[in-house]
Amino acid sequence: MKLVGTVLSNKMMKSVIVMVTRLARHPKYGKVIRHQKKYAAHDEHNACNIGDTVSLASSRPISKTKKWVVEEITKKARVFESGLTGTQARVPTSATTLVQPQTTPAALFHSFAASGLLKR
Questions:
Q1: Measuring CA to CA, which residue among 42, 34, 38 is closest to residue 15?
Q2: CA nearest 2: which of 73, 67, 58?
Q3: Which helix (H) or strand (E) holds 28?
Q4: How far is the C-alpha of 42 from the C-alpha of 62, rounded, in Å?
């Protein structure tokens, strides 16, 4: 049996955690449902990185949780200069950058008056 999924974690030596997503129809209502499951897989050469798409093959039990082996890396994830991959790296956009409001003397007066620091 073969599975295809995305690497979530590669923090262990010669092991990776892979998220496999499959689609199935609900038996009664017919809606398409996305099922996700995590598998621990053996990565002999420590070649997988977070975000890589890999194919898994079943094997004999290697440990308590590892019963799958990484057969091949189908698609490598993009690695940015910071060393972070795809979903981890966030490039700030104009919508996410903070814009400081202009400070006018009237705005300062009203903020101090509201905080109670200014006594009349």
A1: 42
A2: 58
A3: none
A4: 8
Q: Kindly give the pairing relationship between strand 32-42 and strand 15-25.
A: antiparallel
CA dihedral 39, 42, 45, 48 (to 10 degrees): 0
pTM over 0.85: no
Q: Output DSSP code: residue 29.
A: T
Full DSSP string of 48-115: --TT-EEEEEE-S--SSSEEEEEEEEEEPPPB-TTS-BTTT-----TTTS--PPPP-HHHHHHHHHHH
pLDDT tens sequence across 29-84: 999 999 999 999 999 999 999 999 999 999 999 999 999 999 999 999 887 776 66
pLDDT band at 104 (very low <50, low <70, confident <90, very high): confident
What does the block give as tokens for 2?
Answer: 């073969």
CB atoms within 10 A of CB 85: 17
